[in-house]
Every structure is written in C-alpha cells, then in structure tokens.
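[Q] Does anyone have a clean structure-token version of this?
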Amino acid sequence: MTKKFTIFGNPVEHSISPTMHTYAIKGLGLDAAYTKTHLEEASKLKTEFLTHFDAANVTVPHKEAAFALCDEVRGIANKIKAVNTLINENGKMIGYNTDAEGFVKSVVPFGTINNVLIIGAGGTAKALATIFNQKNIDVTILNRSSNRLDFFEKMGLKTFNWENFKISHYDLVVNTTSAGLQDENLPAPKQIIEKIFQHVKFAADAIYNKETPFLKMAKSLNIPHKDGADMLLYQGVLAFDLFYNHQCDQEQITRHMKKAFTKS
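[A] Here you go.
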C-alpha cells in the first residue's frame, strides 16, 4: 500500500521538502507519495495527520504546536520543545526533531567548533542552542530584544540584546532570523554585524537558496560561509530515515535528495 507523507506549514508553497523526498522515494524504488499541506489552524494538525498520513514534516509556524499535540515526543525534541518530524505509530502521533542534528552535520566541513554565536531566538535558534549545548560547545544568543531569551537563560547560556551586546571571539556565527529572506536586511544593526565578523572564523545562515546580505558581508570579508541548504538536506535525510524506521541507507538517501538542490 502506498505510504503517504506531507509537510505541514503556513506558508508551505515554497517548500523544497516534497522535491527532496520525492527524489529519495523514486531513487530508492519505494511506493510512497509526498505532498504539501497548507495548514492555517495548528489545532487541526493532529486530526489531519492521523487521518491521512503515515509520516510528515512540520515547518513554521507549527513546530511548537506539533510538540504540544504529540502523544509521545522522543529524543532531543523534548528539550527543544519543538517537533519537525511526525510518525503515525499505530494511530498515535510520535514527534521528533531532526533540525538540530541536521545543522550539526552541515557545519562539519568547517572543522572544530568550540563556541557559537546564534543570532535570533526562535525555533531554529532553540534547536541549535540545545544541541550545541549538549555537545559541550559554548553558546551565546543575540536577539533584538530580551523578551524571548527565557528559554536560553534557563539553559544557563550567555544572552544579549542589541543594546547590551558584549563582543567575544567565536568560531561560528549563525543567523537563524528571517532577515534577508524577502528583503535586504541584516539580522542586527550593521555596526554589530561588522564587529562580529571581526571576531569570527565561520558564518552560516539558516536561509537557503539565497545569498543574504549577512552572507554577502561574510563573503566580502573572506570569511568561510554557507547557507542553510545542507541543514535542510540533512534534516530531511534524518526525517526520511525515521519515516522508514531506519530501514534505508542514509548515504543513499542523501545522494538522491541532493538532486533537489542541483535541478531547477
């Protein structure tokens, strides 16, 4: 019987996940279909999922709501309190988070990272802060204001807003905000970003398929950098692995999914 997968989001039209997963499904010769589901009301997610799908991905703005709706949450998602992967396990909604591990895999080429500056305080920032902290990497959070920093302060991390930011040296700076996605904005005032780039080895942006102003500045200063494409790829590989209960080879999944980034 054909397995049915989807991605829930609002908006979801732009998502590359269906293309990635379809390449993997076809490449591995599996009987499945992956669609997009535009979902405005998060409260309907569980019924929609359990009624129609075997597994699913969840994107903004529903990751925290999905966490709350799950019958069971496994792994690091319990600490992040956000879910991006759902499995229908005998009529129960089981939640996981593959964003965090996906990002860690994406920055392996940079080499050893001992301390990280994360710009932003949303779901992606929470995922990255949690997994870096678990790996004993020193984490600092910089956000526009202080009103979303409680999560990180409870973890014992260093937190700053634009007004009280004190610069240090960082191996990696990551933009997790939407700045530069549909505009030409930086994730913080220009003078702050310039100061950060004077004290950092590597730069990464969670936004993919666009050279953001943040990455353009890193490039102009010859700082090794990358966009969010590999993060998206690897979280998808790990999600697909969960869809099939670890029965597929991750290297083969990766090889097929990569085609989504090289073909228009």
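[Q] Thanks! Anything notable?
[A] The mean pLDDT is 96.
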